[in-house]
Amino acid sequence: MTSSDEQTGERSLILILGDQLSRNIAALKRADPDRDIVLMAEVAEEAGYVQHHKKKIAFLFSAMRHFATELKEDGWQVHYVRLDDPDNSGSLTGEIDRLRAAHPVARVVVTEPGEYRLKSALQDWAEASDVPLEMLQDSRFLCSHERFGEWAEGRKQLRMEYFYREMRRETGLLMDGDEPEGGKWNFDHENRKPAEDGLTLPEPPQTSPDEITEEVLDLVESQFGDHFGTLRPFWFAVTREDALASLERFAAEALPHFGDYQDAMLEGERFLYHSVLSHYINAGLLEPLEVCRRVERAYYEGDAPLNAAEGFIRQIIGWREYVRGIYWRNMPGYTEQNFLEATRPLPGFYWTADTDMACVAAAVSQTRDEAYAHHIQRLMVTGNFAMLAGIDPHQVHEWYLAVYADAYEWVEAPNVIGMSQYADGGLLGSKPYAASGNYINKMSDHCAGCRYSVTKKTGEDACPFNPLYWDFLVRNRDKLRNNPRLKRAYSTWDRMPEPRQEEYLDSARKVLDQL
Ligand code: FAD
Ligand code: DLZ
């Protein structure tokens, strides 16, 4: 930094957030390494707005430190603030002010934060500040807020499938001219195989912590020792290079079976054929489009079947973009929605895994150990149980936001409030994902070793999901009765003899009283 820079005041302060760790991030693309100054800061406010899992904090701090080092090697002037810097103000806006007090700048530039909370805080700061704030669109996403708005405008119902088809056309991914590869947009019906014995299950590559990561792990242990989760062993990639290696491993080893076993669960198997890439993508170490192009290439080179490649690409250009669109279109207020008026507090076993329900214990304990659970565990085990039991969706939302390494509100809230808890009344999805123990038994081997019997519908030893399923439907009948996708369930209930109905409701009451 030269004194003439200080005088011209043309210099920009480029704020890079912990989940914007990409050389292609919009704010860096517009900046000049010879003139501008990059700010990255570990701050108590971001680390503490929910009780993030220890592994999530360690992942981000280590990835931030590695990225800052890479930027410096590229010739950028990087001002990096560590959490234990004695002058650390504790907030990002405080750190902006501290830096510009020492080095005057003409403007602050940031790529739009992923969370409404932080976007508002920065905008509030800018209103009271004497330097302008430029907030740039996050070009890592395929669909801008405006584009999503155009698509959503005037539609009676928003459904991911139609949005996804537009994203396929716009990206050209798995397109054969104007037609979808293989003649169909969606091969989901091929993607529901339960896991069988004898499958060879690849593990995600394990990166050994280097000196930087070891230092961060010590910091997290000392500063966030009371947060949820097991810190060590820590094996996440913390650089783009290692995240790319994880992508390659996925494409070569797991992708071929990703589709077939996408909805399966197996006791003791934490990852199955899932990619375990979401935390890398969300933090900026991998670009969503490059991940999809790699998967598309695997299909065209004959290394993966179409149902796997299409299923995977749909999760990213379909679901991931769609939930982001829903989030920004409905904030503020979306995280407060409670269509089913559920008020029960979150049971303690969501933190301890201390429950006799084998599927819930497996999902929570691997969440504690890995800061990871795959989609069906999140949706059909912990999410399903919370909705059936009538847990306050805001508490459920805060749990999910805290416990996963990939959790940021823009992606977590629509998945929880919308998809899993139906708290938005059907804005995101067409029906509540409510299921009895039968579904879990079909898709997993958890029930075999469970203290509850999945075939028992009521009574002490019955799988709690069984009576809770009916209790949920009965409890919410006024709100759900007209949903065409629940008509069959309600008519089954209505045909049931009254004493049987009473047994279900009585069993459900007993389960709920014990929570
Ligand atoms: P894979 O199964 O390998 O899927 C590939 C990729 O597709 C993922 O890496 C992810 O980027 C994307 N993806 C898949 N499903 C979704 C989805 N529904 N929404 C958005 N992206 C998707 N995902 C998050 O990234 N952060 C969250 O905080 C989060 N919270 C969730 C909460 C609930 C209740 C549910 C039901 C889902 C949630 N998801 C969340 C979506 C999904 O469960 C995770 O993205 C996935 O489990 C991550 O593991 P993976 O990388 O192995 O995914
Ligand atoms: C999640 C997180 C954590 C734990 N810590 C920081 C931090 O210290 N500094 C930072 O810049 N970002 C952090 N983040 C990510 C932010 O919370 C994230 O950028 C916002 O939630 C917007 O998505």
UniProtKB/TrEMBL annotation:
- Renumbered residue ranges of the record's region Disordered: 174-209
InterPro entries from the entry? Crypto/Photolyase_FAD-like_sf (IPR036134), PhrB-like (IPR007357), Rossmann-like_a/b/a_fold (IPR014729), UV-DNA_repair_photolyase (IPR052551)
User: Which SUPFAM superfamilies does the entry link to?
Assistant: Cryptochrome/photolyase FAD-binding domain (SSF48173)
Q: Sorted alphabetically, which Pfam families does this protein's record hold?
A: DPRP (PF04244)
Q: Where is the composition biased (Basic and acidic residues)?
A: 186-196
Name of the protein this chain belongs to: Cryptochrome/photolyase family protein
